[in-house]
């Protein structure tokens, strides 16, 4: 009778161990799926942020380009409106730059 109890206990332990193995396998799969979901969410979020940053950068570049065009147009208008003073200012700026370079070379 004691022998019967021991073999029944062994069968129960084997059954419990098999159940435990299945539970651990299920838990491992659940953790793996959860981790994959988190990675996908993080990747998606990073991709969205990158897209938004690129769009913001493009908008800022367009604004800077428009401002640059406006400045060039304004400069062209000033030069064409006052050609003699523009030539005199360009000559003066070139003269000063040449003197500064000459001073730097002499040292």
Folded structure, characterized:
There is one protein chain. This protein is mostly helical and 107 residues long. The chain has one domain (2-82). It has two helices and no strands. α1 (2-81) packs across α2 (83-106). It is rod-shaped and about 120 Å long. It starts with a helix and ends with a helix.
What's a concise summary of this model?
97% of the residues lie in helices and 0% in strands. With 107 residues, it is mostly helical.
Summary tags:
single chain; 107 residues; mainly alpha; rod-shaped
Secondary structure blueprint with pairings:
Blueprint: H1 2-81, H2 83-106
- H and E string: HH
Our count of domains comes out at 1
Q: Note the main sheet.
A: none
The amount of helix comes to over 70%
Number of helices: 2
* Coarse structural class: mainly alpha
Shape: rod-shaped
Alpha-carbon Rg, integer: 40 Å
Strand content: under 5%
User: What is the β-strand count?
Assistant: 0
End-to-end separation in angstroms reads 113 Å
């Amino acid at each position: 009778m004691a022998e019967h109890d021991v073999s029944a206990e062994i069968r129960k332990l084997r059954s419990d161990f098999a159940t435990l193995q299945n539970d651990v396998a299920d838990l491992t799969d659940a953790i793996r799926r959860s981790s994959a979901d988190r990675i996908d969410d993080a990747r998606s979020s990073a991709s969205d942020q990158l897209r938004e940053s690129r769009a913001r950068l493009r908008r800022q570049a367009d604004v800077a380009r428009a401002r640059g065009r406006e400045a060039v147009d304004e400069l062209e208008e000033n030069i064409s409106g006052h050609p003699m003073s523009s030539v005199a200012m360009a000559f003066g700026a070139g003269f000063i730059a040449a003197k500064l370079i000459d001073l730097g070379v002499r040292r």
